[in-house]
Specification:
The structure is a homodimer.
Chain A lengths: L1 H4 L3 H20 L4 E7 L5 H14 L4 E7 L12 H4 L1 H5 L3 E7 L3 E2 L2 E2 L2 H10 L4 E7 L2 H10 L2 E6 L11 H5 L4 E4 L7 H15 L12 E4 L8 H18 L2 H26 L2 H16 L4 H17 L9
Parallel strand pairs in A: 1-6, 1-7, 2-3, 2-6, 7-8, 8-9
Antiparallel strand pairs in A: 4-5
Chain lengths: 317, 317
Amino acid sequence: MTLVESDRADDRSDAIAILQRCERKLDREDHSYRFAISGSPGVGKSTFIEALGMQAIKAGHKVGVLTIDPSSSISHGSILGDKSRMTQLSNSQEAFIRSTGAGDVLGGLGRRSMELMTLLSAAGYNLILLETVGVGQSEHTTWQFTDGFVLVIQPGAGDELQGIKRGITELADIVVVNKADSDLVQLAKIAKAQYQTALHFFSSTREGWIPKILTCSSIENVGIDDAWEALRLYIAYLDQQQTKKQDRVRQKLNWLTWSIRLTAQELMTRHPAIQQKMEAGKNEIKLEPSTAFNIEFEIENLMHDLLHSTDSPAKPT
Amino acid sequence: MTLVESDRADDRSDAIAILQRCERKLDREDHSYRFAISGSPGVGKSTFIEALGMQAIKAGHKVGVLTIDPSSSISHGSILGDKSRMTQLSNSQEAFIRSTGAGDVLGGLGRRSMELMTLLSAAGYNLILLETVGVGQSEHTTWQFTDGFVLVIQPGAGDELQGIKRGITELADIVVVNKADSDLVQLAKIAKAQYQTALHFFSSTREGWIPKILTCSSIENVGIDDAWEALRLYIAYLDQQQTKKQDRVRQKLNWLTWSIRLTAQELMTRHPAIQQKMEAGKNEIKLEPSTAFNIEFEIENLMHDLLHSTDSPAKPT
């Protein structure tokens, strides 16, 4: 996993070789079900993953978890590692937890989440839970890479249904109203009812599946059996569809588009001519701030030139 | 604004000319204060902006608002425009609201937010409120472009303080616990107390400013005067610092880095050789899914070749 997440050029071809071996194995038999566990910060995703994962292990599954390590964007120091947040799961022989530092998170998910899911699946983890943080856009990205989408919300947010939440809610196969404990039990029930009503207005994204909605308390371990039952039903639905091969192809195509966009950005901004022009431009802005938009335009044109100075497609590699 | 947000190549140079004229004016005198209004979806940012904006207008300000239009990421249909969400502000002569469609939002803010802030400032809007959605990364981006950072949270999330919220909270100059109404009044007070305690542990990002924290109900218009008072104090602090010129330069440099990265991505992925290779690669993946990671590697190498086939820096434009 460290090799696959490495940025070093000489690690890349080794990583690719391992990944292709795993992919060949998975092409023959892939028993994994991959779920995105998504929601705003603070809704209790980690606690939910811990509780759900333990339930899945009891049902005989091997659980692979990809989480985002909560760390500061300024100091880059993480306060609590995910292993200390998910104590039960991390002590279980049937689970594997991999944390990606928030610094390597792009648009709400890890840069190499897809590759890590491949490794986990090939290693026999058949229930994969991919934690995502974010809003519409990043949730949509993650949705494209996974088999099922679990949206975790907290009570008291239901009144915002008409707003931006729609973009997220209509992706959800299962909606979990977490924190249905102490003062929030009543509000959780209201939120559930509101989402239940709202779901009628959304066009379902999967044919033949009606999104499930439920309340639970991950901390008090109440309602986690309902959540697992919803996942189990969804897995049964997937099995019945018999579309895993097509699903994996679609997910890989989506992942390719996403990944290539990020690579493009990295390579271009590291090009010596661009870097040189950037440095010069920054100095100019310091002297004459009103030139900023002009300088951006000039760099844009330089990028154009760099890319189009080669008329014929590059030689095969 | 439409010109500045346009993607058309022949609009770009006109847009740049207008922007530079505005920038020259602002270099002479810039009376604008630019605030990021940030928070997870559902915390009531729009309602808060509406209430705060009206309060600022009463105090003699002209208010420019840049919002994100809540729209579906699948159907691309927005349910409610921001003008219908901010009815009072949009009817005021002293306010200007510009909505960016969620489809044009990258990393939690609009692609051309910086440029739009320049236009608003040059047009005399001296209080600029820039709505941002997202998690650590995007909030950090927005923080780099603005003079002050207002974090809006909702009650009941305080227990997650140790987690991912830190990355956001330490950016905040003002923390607003919104929705302090009906069932949530007590929880709002608890959240305020928890954040107040937590703020002691954060290294302040601005010398000489102690972050303010307050509760309010935007819907019931309670506590909005406190919120405005906090902004007023922060503006007084900014005036006292007398660093606006340096601040604007720093913000422009940050914006240049961010903007150029996105441009790099757009130009590279639209290059004919890359597009051709992408199409061929996608077809190969459909036939032989296990080649996906290999194909990504090949495209990466092609990008390398395209950029480095020109040995000398490109000719000046």
